[in-house]
Amino acid sequence: MNLENSQNYYGKVLESSADLRTDACCTAEMPSAAVREALRNVHEEVKARYYGCGLVVPQALEGARVLDLGSGSGQDAYLLAQLVGPNGSVTGVDATPEQLAVANAHKDWHAERFGYANVDFVEGDIEKLGEVGLEPASFDIIVSNCVINLVADKEAVFRAAHRLLKPGGELYFSDVYADRRVPEHLQRDPVLHGECLSGALYWGDFERIARAAGFADPRLVTDRPLAINDAEAAAKLAGISFVSATYRLFELAGLEPQCEDYGQAVVYKGTVPGSERIFELDAHHAIEAGRVFPVCGNSWLMLAETRFAPHFDFIGDFSRHFGVFPGCGTAMPFGQSGAGSATSGAPCC
Ligand SMILES: C[S@@+](CC[C@H](N)C(=O)[O-])C[C@H]1O[C@@H](n2cnc3c(N)ncnc32)[C@H](O)[C@@H]1O
């Protein structure tokens, strides 16, 4: 029912974002000046049918090959097309013909406005990306904005994204999450599903699914609680809290399940356009330019083996391990039980 309901909701029920009944498919973040400028070059009809829940604009986009899963009327695709520039490209995939029709109707208008044509849209189901004809390991960045919650087979989407990314590429996406598993009868409610609420993953299931798909260390970038202002929807969902969150998931073979300390550090050169003072890797890593910034092995790889490498100096290597990285959320399990200590005289075996 998921795909059919999404196609009906986004193709027939909604005509513009003004028809939404909750604020789940709305973006609250303040865009940067560059993003605001680029949005001025997006056609009004495309913007009217924007239903994203976050800002899917990672840093250092110049020349990147981007895939947008569930591209809708194309706002993010046309925005990113300007940020990747004429040497990059954006491909959008969506399953709703009415949304694709709006996106395609304005391709020439945008090409003329930008001075180059680097966007295309493909009709397809993102649960079956193998059938869409995309080359494995061919994208630098995959974005998705308020779509994966709508999909039944979320595991398939993460597995496909992992397969389509180049090594060192990233899935940078905004979606809705719940603080617990949403009961099945609510998942089948057409309005709650269409409004991007009842299909939301319990955040713990998301972490597990992402890791199983090969994204070993999901990094939270931003999050905001969602208010459900529609009285009927709020009553049905009482007791469940929802957030809109943006995560980045890197396709990096060497990532470990948790943050390990090898005594490494990085120094940001201040060279990423638009992030000259501070480079934000995620919600816990705001890396100030010029400062020696200690990092765990995973953060090191996310900077050293990705498009961010030229923007950093790297101190250290992986030759010596100092245990778990302090303050990364995983504490050593020993010494908590209260039973036994070095001086208790307990037997060895
Ligand atoms: C909430 S809208 C977001 C659209 C767009 N990302 C934006 O920010 O405006 C959800 C979009 O996901 C698309 N969608 C839902 N399920 C899909 C699927 N299985 N395959 C492809 N697209 C899907 C819908 O057609 C719709 O355009």
Shape: globular
Please report the first level of CATH classification, the CATH class of the largest domain: Alpha Beta
The string of secondary-structure elements, in order, is: HHHEHEHHEEHEHHEHEHEEEEEHE
Proportion of strand residues: 15-25%
Derived structural class: alpha/beta
Total domain count = 2
Q: What small molecules does the structure contain? A: S-adenosylmethionine
Radius of gyration: 22 Å
End-to-end Cα distance, whole Å, is 58 Å
Q: How many strand elements? A: 13
What is the mean pLDDT?
A: 94
Name the poorly predicted regions: 341-347
CATH superfamily of the largest domain: Vaccinia Virus protein VP39
Which range best describes the helical content: under 10%, 10-25%, 25-40%, 40-55%, 55-70% or over 70%?
A: 25-40%
Query: What fold name goes in the CATH topology slot of the largest domain?
Result: Rossmann fold
State the CATH architecture of the largest domain: 3-Layer(aba) Sandwich
Short description:
With 349 residues, the protein is α/β, with parallel strands linked by helices. It has twelve helices and 13 strands. The termini are far apart.
